[in-house]
């Protein structure tokens, strides 16, 4: 370790957007910084702070700020638009008060690493003289598309059938994030993803939870305009060695993960025989889609472990759980433990960025069933560029039929194409590990960041 670092004890504040897919990678990155002798304080909103502060964050200090909805967070707001606006206003004031308080502490912070979804945190941090660091929880490819939308290089509503954008393969309209090709569908989320770039020019660093090799061309393009470094995959080192044993090693669970139940069930299944199915923490399937998926899984005659969140349980076909001896349906699971379990042979996924990076880093082949937002672009890259999965395409009614799901499972498990995909998955797994390991590109980037922090 260099001398300055010992003398200065850098202190980073980490501010994720309050959602599972944002908390996980930023908490994991916090642990990485702590390993490199950086003090970290996680900042979360009061409603979440009440539920997470006592769980598995022993090495990270936690402070809270208000988003204006201390009881219930986003779910207590009238709409996402109102939540976003309130969080921006109340959060800025509350973060200022916290920074004021911390500035008189023994080891005051010198840096704020904020989720790019919360750009106002950069202005607050700068007003206290802190180093301002944006953290991308989504892929660089997707962020480059949103950036070009922000800067109007991509005009909305979309008018072309294909787009050739810097560092990306040719993308059909439907391969662009859903907020673009279904312009107007979720105005609140659209504003959040595009507003990430309002003040990005003022950020001292931009850290992206990605692996350079995965998106090298688009990263090379972005580093010409931004101080961007890839630091991913932001997951525990043990995962990459398949040694993860305790769920508490990873991020936080906003729901009970049913760990023992899931692992016990997986333990007596043959190697590579189980299809793991999950659509992340936000989007839900329609009832029709849930039925098609249920029968696709059943007809595939494979074992399956399917996460159906509490809010979606009523969409299951009546009595379905009792009709199949081969499935286990849970409301949430310890995803990394499941993906690293040798019984798991493939993953039917919505292609959320965390799920994508996790599976890629563990070498599990994917069946891509994107629902919205960045997931469609990730699905395109999964199937056609990284070749670590197959795409389960929807029909004209936007439903992926049971037959398609069954065929995709068989394709991964039994076909020659499936063997090629498994080889490709292994290649990416090794690349992810070498980037993460000491001296790898992501590790060096983190090291470079920590050294800059120490000298700031
Ligand atoms: C959201 C968006 O949907 C996604 O497209 C975007 O890239 C990030 O924000 P989410 O839907 O939650 O994320 O999906 P994902 O990014 O995959 O994150 C889900 C996280 O929850 C993963 O870290 C996964 O390991 C974890 N998880 C999921 C569990 O621990 N248990 C589960 O049962 C399901």
TrEMBL record:
Q: Which UniProt keywords apply?
A: Glycosyltransferase, Transferase
Which of the seven top EC classes does this enzyme belong to? transferase
Natural source organism: Vicia faba
One annotated GO biological process: monocarboxylic acid metabolic process
Supply one GO molecular-function term: quercetin 3-O-glucosyltransferase activity
Enzyme Commission number, as recorded: 2.4.1.-
Q: CDD domains under this entry? A: GT1_Gtf-like (cd03784)
Q: Any idea what this protein is called?
A: Glycosyltransferase
Q: Report the domain of life of the source organism.
A: Eukaryota
Q: Name one Pfam family in it.
A: UDPGT
Entry's family note: Belongs to the UDP-glycosyltransferase family.
Q: Which InterPro entries match?
A: UDP_glucos_trans (IPR002213), UDP_glycos_trans_CS (IPR035595)
The answer to keyword Glycosyltransferase applying to this record is yes
Q: Which PANTHER family match?
A: GLUCOSYL/GLUCURONOSYL TRANSFERASES, GLYCOSYLTRANSFERASE
